[in-house]
Amino acid sequence: MSEITLDGLEKRYGETTAVEDVSVEIEDGELLCLLGPSGSGKSTTLRMIAGLETPTNGSIAIGDADVTDLPAYERTTATVFQDWALFPHMTVLENVAFGLKMQGVSKAERRDRAREMLERVQMAAHADEDPTTLSGGQKQRVALARSLAVNPDVLLLDEPLSNLDKRLREDMQIELREIHEDLEKTFVHVTHDQDEAFTLADRIGVMNDGELIQVGDPDEVYERPENRFIEGFLGDTNFVDASVTATTADGVRVDTELDAELVVTAADGTTPDLETGTDLTLSLRPEILSIHGVDEERADDAGVREATVAADGGTRNAVTGTVENVVYRGSTVRYSVSVGDSSMFAERTDASTGALSAGDDVRLEWDGDDVLAFRDDGDRVMP
Fold this sequence. Notes:
Elements: E1 2-13, E2 16-27, E3 31-35, H1 42-50, E4 57-62, E5 65-66, E6 77-80, H2 92-102, H3 107-120, H4 136-149, E7 154-158, H5 166-183, E8 186-191, H6 194-200, E9 203-208, E10 211-216, H7 218-223, H8 228-233, E11 238-248, E12 251-256, E13 261-264, E14 279-284, E15 290-293, E16 304-309, E17 315-328, E18 333-339, E19 342-348, E20 361-367, E21 372-374, E22 380-382
Parallel strand pairs: 3-8, 3-9, 6-7, 7-8
Antiparallel strand pairs: 1-2, 1-4, 4-5, 9-10, 11-12, 11-14, 12-13, 14-21, 15-20, 16-17, 17-18, 17-20, 18-19, 21-22
Helix pairs in contact: 2-3, 2-4, 3-4
């Protein structure tokens, strides 16, 4: 049974549509991350599930119950907000116990339950403190404990980690994941942070302009994005304009803005029937590119090389260019490379090979089946 079912969910504010025709089934015990840029409709969707916003159209079911028209206090949900919303006139323990008090739970029982939740989030030592004296990470733990104390069927988290610094945010992501696995409850987590979504989620739902574009496992969404927006949003990539010159058994041959004719292939050997002249956008993520220095006598080698068929039957593409700048990023080094009239970037660790410098001539290589191709309308066509 689906724990949460959204069917044709829509929210309009006057002439503005914030959420449009969102339908998804969130399974019992699943952690779904709604991921998207600011204004994509993800928080509005969460607030409708919580009962804090009323849908203009569509329905919401939790378990077998249609809760579309139920007020928030009659739903089996709890929400953790971005700004924590702790009561400054109460102690930490009283904040955590507040929801239980509203439910009519006895004083002794709610204190025991509140202490149990504080233990779970490693905040028991702060039970009698004023919440205004706590750090951001501590406040977030208290807010989480307060939501968990009422034993909700569904926990809703609206960008709860966005106010924390990088290291603490990463620590809290791991803690949230462990809490979810321990409780086996349904979590819906809203974030604009791709790393956070990939760390936490069983599945990711990508939203943009009020629409839920794609829902899938993290690896599926990253490796097989439905369209160019998702590919560009989920990390860094090189977008390269291309035009189909031929479709062969080896793949689709394209002419590119890199002044090179390259080949795009699919790992399963399928090749779409694309007409000559069809415009495409190729996506080459920096992690698929290998970068190597080239000998001086090959530096004037027209700047490019056509795709070649490797010994294993795969297709290997290569272009040559010149390093424009080098950025040291700790575990990796990022190189910006001028190729023809374009610029590309690649990353590598330099542990096994000599470091490259600005001005060096280099060769970029990649496998044809590591490339994604998108049509003019943004939809993915390959692989």
